[in-house]
Amino acid sequence: MARIGIIGGSGFYSLLSDAEQVEVETEYGRPSSEVSIGSISGIEVAFLARHGLKHTLPPHKVPCKANIEALAQLGVERIISTSAVGSLKASYKPGELALFDQFVNTTHGRDDTFFHGPKVVHVSLAEPYCPEMRTIASRHGFDHDSGTVVVVDGPRFSTKAESRRYSAYADMINMTQYPEVALAREKGICYLGIGMVTDYDAGLEGDPDVKPVSYDEVGRMFSSNVERLKSLISTLAHEIPERRSCKCKDSLIGAEVKA
Ligand SMILES: [Zn+2]
After folding, report:
1. What pTM, to 2 d.p., does this model score?
2. How far does the centroid of ligand 1 lie from the alpha carbon of residue 133, in Å?
3. Residues belonging to the active site
4. Which CATH number fits domain 4-250: 3.40.190.10, 1.10.260.40, 3.40.50.360, 3.40.50.1580?
5. Rounded to whole angstroms, how far apart are CA atoms 125 and 113?
6. What is the pLDDT of residues 31-67, one digit of tens each?
7. Of 138, 7, 151, the residue nearest 86 (C-alpha)
8. Three-state secondary structure call for residue 73
9. Cα 83 to ligand 1 centre (Å)
10. Is residue 71 within 8 Å of 79, Cβ to Cβ?
11. CA separation (Å) from 80 to 155, 240, 258?
């Protein structure tokens, strides 16, 4: 049983050197990859590569329900998730690591609930990211302790006009936070979202020297920072307490519609 699950995003396909590979089958299909179970800082963790071990799954094809269900089956109570993000603000600079505290979803057609009836559930996502994990993480030198991420379908990057619109309400942009974080909440699993800023989306308004993103740039930036990210995850795995004092696990209490 691994209490802590780690979902690695673009550029982050392995974490554990000496791990057991577990094939998990769920009622929602297979997860993105085999799950690696091993220890980090002496704590057992389960690692899953969101886009597959060879990055063959585009954002809209990530089997989010199977991924969350697979981690739940393995006993995961807390998820640390990493994602590459574009910056929409000059203050979020490429190479920096940010903790998300809010998201705005603009994706369409993704299966974003475990409850399609007859059981009807409306979970609260006012605070989508686990407050207990965010408090612990904020002591460890992230460049930003909060930030709103807008989630878009992709797989293409934004136009300048789209980027300008998103920047009115979000700091970062990403293609995979939704519905992953919402599904974790429905399962009562705590979720910490870490964004690695890789680029300035469609460039920066008023600064013609800042060029729009290319995927090559995302990959380069990520690989140069992945060791720092691994070290932070190792610290967090060690410091996250076994007993949860947050309310994430009680997400279904009072959320079910009763006739
Ligand atoms: Zn929590």
Report:
1. 0.94
2. 6
3. 199, 201
4. 3.40.50.1580
5. 13
6. 999 999 999 888 999 999 999 988 899 999 999 999 9
7. 151
8. helix
9. 19
10. yes
11. 23, 11, 33
